[in-house]
Amino acid sequence: MANLTLELEAERKKICQIAKNCGLDGFETVFELINYDQISQIASYGGFPVRYPHWKFGMEYEQLSKSYEYGLSKIYEMVINTDPCYAYLMEGNSMMDQKLVMAHVYGHCDFFKNNVWFSKTNRKMMDEMANHAIRIRRYIDHHGYEVVEKFIDTCLSLENLIDRHSILNGPQKFSDPAPKVKNDHYLFKVEKSYMRNYINPPAYIAEQELKQAELHQQKATFPSAPVRDVLSFMINYAPLEDWQQDILTIIRDESYYFAPQGMTKTLNEGWASYWHSHMMTRYILNDSEIIDFADHHSGTTFMQMGGYNPYKVGIEMFRDIEERWDKGRHGRDWDQCDDVRERKNWNKNTKQGRDKIFEIRKIYNDVTFIDEFLTEDFCVRNKMFIYKLNKETNRFEVNTRDFKAIKAQLLFQMTNFGQPIIKIENANFENRGELLLNHVHEGLDLQPNYMDATMRNLFKLWQRPVNMVTVMDNGLQLFRFDGSEYTKHSLNSEKLPEQGTQTEFPKI
Amino acid sequence: MAIREDQNRFKSIIKGKVRDDFKKYVTNGELIGKREDEFVKIPMPRIDIPSFRYGPKQDEQGVGQGDGEADEGQGQPGEGQGKAGENAGEHMIEVEISMDELAEILGEKLELPRIEPKGSKNIMAEKNRYSGMAPVGPEGLRKFKQTYKKALTRYISSGTYNPSEPVIVPIRRDFQYRSVKKTQQPQTKAVVIYMMDVSGSMGDEQKEIVRLESFWINTWLKKHYKGLETRFIIHDAAAKEVDEATFFKTSESGGTLISSAYKLCQQIIQADYPTSEWNIYPFHFSDGDNWSGEDTRTCLNLLKEFFLPKVNVFSYGQVESKYGSGQFLKDLQKEFNADDRLTLSQIEGRDKILDSIKDFLGKGK
């Protein structure tokens, strides 16, 4: 075991046993006791002790350590999804805090191990990250710091362009050959003229001529179906050098590794909070600690005015679900019951609550969780509302408390887990090897200045003009960066190119 | 720790950004408010890696929790307390830059020459440095390496050194200690005396310009003179010495007698700053509207007889006010046309601050 004090180690053993008794089944968990500077460092590295060198970690660190020093924030708990699970405790926290963190961590750990969305993640990621660091440092030695840094900047700019829905299927396989360009140099070199007919027999020439003519005719749509895993597509088809390809692969791997955590934020935090609360109040706390615990716990699960706190929504929903399934408040009979009094006293004593929440932690993610289990009763009880900016007063005001609107808003925020959906529609646009992206517009425009900069970065990889179709200011627009100029073209009422068919865009 | 490498890299990127946007920082007063003793805190937008992301509209709407009524009516201010994070989207970070680095950037941007202190060869000061060596001293200052060498020399020269068993035991007279050595150093004492016209015609904008200029001038001079002293004089028809805060805030009204300030400045120099030891930098800012030709003549005489021979360089900045630009600058130009002990600068507005700083400091005096 790591460097825990005897006292902490005794508590850890106790809590570990309690967690097991509660049915939590995580990986073995290693706790490290570290000081605030170390915790700031590790937090800037996304929970890992070693990452590749990049200024963005330095920026994170600068902010974390400053805000700790100024007393604005404090990192209590950090745990990473590996086997064994590594978790960090901060030196100098009170015993109650340490116990709370340990209980919370066992909740996360169980979630990592059992939630299906995490099932394909690399559980040896700590080693993998260290290997990535070594590979990138090697490229730095070969090509220079600034060259590699610039390239990493470019890759990071595209890191969210992965297909979150393919997490369970593994990486997408590409079988499409890249479209061939017409090639007039198919004749083999002939040095002695009498050999000509043997080296380039007429039959071969005829065959090649036919092939070239075909290629010329062909207006290939490539890829055959739209691709959401843009990074993978770039790795396979963009004209990159070996080291660039490798760095892009590293960025993509790390992006996929972190993706499930983004997809299960509410569920994961809710689950861990539910269990720390359950275990602390029933088995762990002693009398003198209960006030501190209540203070700390409510601090974590406090929903700021207007903010969305995944801890709060998560834990409340788990409790709600447990109660509903304990009392049988679900299914057809419950839904059709309109009698307020009957609903209030509804208790079928089914006692399935605990099983239900364990099932949820296994197969759901945030979107499916909210979609299925957010109920009107829950919204009313938790006083949820939608706020909106009042342009006249420039203040945020409660807009509505309508259940459907709240649910729609929550789900909308989680669409593609908060990231815009962007697909490669055609990588041979206009038959000129240009890239055509399509932003599936869900009601929100893309941030224009970021889009400009990101398209420039995409151009750096693809090295051919990059086009993007999106809705901006209520009109369908095509944005284009051709290597020197960034232009905007209105497509008016024209339809987006359907899959498989080639739509002619206005000539540019 | 590996994070230091990333942190330093981040800081150097930030410094590059400050360098790029330097003019912006010079012409707005934000920096000065954030000044601490050694550092300036520069607020700047968090540098983000661009990505395809949703525009700001997303922040205008969201789900919250709490009491409050939905605002159905139109125009009436809602009672709802829902509130999203303020200034959503733009995350600001504060970066610290030391005054020294700031001065360096200023120097680099304006291509300022290094200042050569006046009479530096004559003004010497003694300074003690631990750079000598002595056979006696406190144990804390004993130098192991030198002591060992001394002992080794003794062993070898006396023939007792045995390479197969190289044990060296130093004895009392081998011991070497660091000791104080007196060195002569050129003295660099400097004082800046700021004089400002606060008569009715100098508005707030003019004072702001003076404030900005004096901040940058101070930054630059401080880099060259450790322990730079600053004195402040304000004047309208009469002059008085004030502290820094008052200097920038006071707004008087009334006429302008520039000579009053010059006389006071003369008194200060005579009382506190013997010219043989001090580098003296008087700066005078005015809108150039002197009360009478008589007074202007007094000023010119003072300059000719007292200031120019005694100080490093006398600087006059004429700030253009809403009443136009006065005559004083022209009078000075006429009288001291080619004298490089006097620098003149006309400051038409905020944008010209950098040029004016260059006028003042570009001579390297």
Shape of chain A: globular
Strand percentage of chain A, roughly? 5-15%
Order of helices and strands of chain B: HHHEEEHEHEEHEEHHEHEHEH
Biggest pleated-sheet summary of chain A: 5 strands, mixed
Give the fraction of residues assigned to helices of chain B: 25-40%
Q: How would a crystallographer describe the biggest sheet of chain B?
A: 6 strands, mixed
Give the helices and strands of chain A as they follow along the chain: HEHHEEHHHHHHHHHHHHHHHEEHEEHEEE
The two chains with the largest interface, and their residue counts, are:
A-B, 69 and 50 residues
Question: What's the helix count of chain B?
Answer: 11
Which range best describes the helical content of chain A: under 10%, 10-25%, 25-40%, 40-55%, 55-70% or over 70%? 40-55%
Return residue spans of chain A where pLDDT drops below 50 for at least 5 consecutive residues.
495-508
Question: How does this model look, in words?
Answer:
The complex is a heterodimer of chains A (508) and B (365). Chain A is an alpha+beta fold and 508 residues long. Among the domains of chain A are: 6-115 and 264-288, no CATH class; 306-415, no CATH class; 417-492, no CATH class. Chain A has helices at residues 6-21, 36-44, 55-69, 95-114, 125-143, 145-157, 196-199, 202-217, 230-237, 242-263, 265-284, 290-300, 310-326, 331-336, 340-344, 353-363, 366-373, 376-381, 403-414, 448-462; strands at 29-34, 78-80, 85-90, 384-390, 395-400, 421-429, 434-440, 466-472, 475-481, 486-492. In chain A, the strands form 3 sheets. Chain A has a 5-stranded mixed sheet, covered by helices on one side. Chain A has a 3-stranded mixed sheet with strand order 1-3-2. In chain A, strands 4-5 form a two-stranded antiparallel sheet. In chain A, strand 6 (421-429) and strand 7 (434-440) form a beta hairpin. The longest helix of chain A is centred in the middle third of the chain and has 22 residues, at 242-263. The model of chain A is unreliable at 495-508 (pLDDT under 50). By secondary structure, chain B is α/β, with parallel strands linked by helices. Chain B has 3 domains: 1-48 and 91-111, no CATH class; 133-184, no CATH class; 190-361, von Willebrand factor, type A domain (Rossmann fold, 3-Layer(aba) Sandwich), CATH 3.40.50.410. In chain B, the strands form 3 sheets. Chain B has a 6-stranded mixed sheet, with helices on both faces. In chain B, strands 1-3 form a two-stranded antiparallel sheet. Chain B has a two-stranded antiparallel sheet with strand order 4-5. In chain B, a hairpin with a 3-residue loop joins strand 7 (229-235) and strand 8 (239-242). In chain B, helix 6 packs across helix 11 (353-361). The radius of gyration of chain B is 30 Å and the shape is flat. The relative contact order of chain B is 0.11. The model of chain B is unreliable at 71-90 (pLDDT under 50). Chains A and B meet through helix 2, helix 3, helix 6, strand 4 and strand 5 of A and helix 1, strand 2 and strand 3 of B. Strand 4 (384-390) of chain A pairs antiparallel with strand 2 (61-65) of chain B, so a sheet runs across the interface.
